[in-house]
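Might you be able to consider the sequence and fold that I enclose below?
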Amino acid sequence: MKRILIALARVVAGLCVQLGGMYLAVLISFDLDGSGPDWLWLVGLGFLGLAGMVAGWIAGRYLMVPALILFVLVWTELCEYDQLVYMTPSEALDAYLGDMIFMALCCAVLAGGIALGYRDARRTWPGLSARAPGRVGTGSA
């Protein structure tokens, strides 16, 4: 029971870090008025990968599926809002396909960051790595 509570606390902390990274990535990479440089999306990917690495370092492998589900839900809502406000229906399909390709790239960066963070955490603190529960001290009966 204690391991489950600790794992849940680690996942919640990792998701909080991930939400902060997603917020920074969206703030930096979306240039709605078109006056910024074209390379801002790379900086957003960098923030997303760094946030994934820190979140994976905190939460471990339990974070992968919830973080990707949360990212996809937030991303699709943001894309729908952007298309409803700023685009006509004829432009929306092309932009939506481009957004889905970028979302797949972001998911790959996020998953890679979480995996790197988890691997680094296992090397740094081998006792904190998530293990399957098993019997300790089996003796002959």
User: Anything to note?
Assistant: Residues 2-30+39-128 form one domain.
